[in-house]
Amino acid sequence: MPSRPVRPEPPQALHLARLAQGTPGEWTTLPGGELRVLALAGKIGGPALGGWLTCLSGEAVLDLPHGEFVRLRPAEAYRVTPDQPWEALPVKAGTVLLLVPGA
After folding, report:
1. Whole-model pTM?
2. Helix (H, G, I), strand (E, B) or coil at 19
3. Strand pairing category for 96-101 and 51-57
4. Would 4 be classed as within a structural domain?
5. pLDDT for res 40
6. Which band of pLDDT confidence, cut at 50, 70 and 90, is reported for residue 82?
7. Burial of 98 by CB count in 10 Å (0-12 exposed, 13-18 middle, 19+ buried)?
8. Is residue 32 included in any domain, yes or no?
9. What is the pLDDT of residues 22-50, one digit of tens each?
10. What's 32's domain CATH number?
11. How many structural domains are present in the chain?
């Protein structure tokens, strides 16, 4: 009787919020790419990168220059630019942000 071919293990999904929560307050760069995740543990300055900043969980306020701010809720994103400094402040516990750098 012929033996059955051995199936490879299915690929594992990467749980971004769990990855970020491993080092709260520090940006974690995902393996093999430039994506970054952050579990907000207090107010933190954003890196001088351009791209899309997305709220994965919780809620955050982005403090922008000139007294402006943006509130990010889950599944909401805001385009940041390298010439516009910003700081993020968690509004709810468990806030995780994803930064997708890009032109």
Report:
1. 0.85
2. helix
3. antiparallel
4. no
5. 96
6. very high
7. buried
8. yes
9. 999 999 998 888 899 999 999 999 998 99
10. 2.60.120.10
11. 1
Domain-embedded: residue 83: yes
Q: Which residues contact 58 (CB under 8 A, 6 or more apart)?
A: 40, 74, 90, 91, 92, 93, 94, 95, 96
In-domain check, residue 1: no
Tell me the longest C-alpha to C-alpha distance in the chain: 76
Beta carbons within 8 Å of 25's beta carbon, 6+ residues apart:
38, 39, 40, 41, 42, 44
Tokens standing for 1?
A: 């009787």
Give the range of the structural domain holding residue 92, as residue numbers without chain letter: 16-101
Backbone angles phi, psi at 10, to 5 degrees: -65, 150
- Mean predicted confidence (pLDDT) in 65-94: 95
Helix (H) or strand (E) holding 16: helix 16-21
Q: How far apart are CA 6 and CA 19, in angstroms?
A: 31
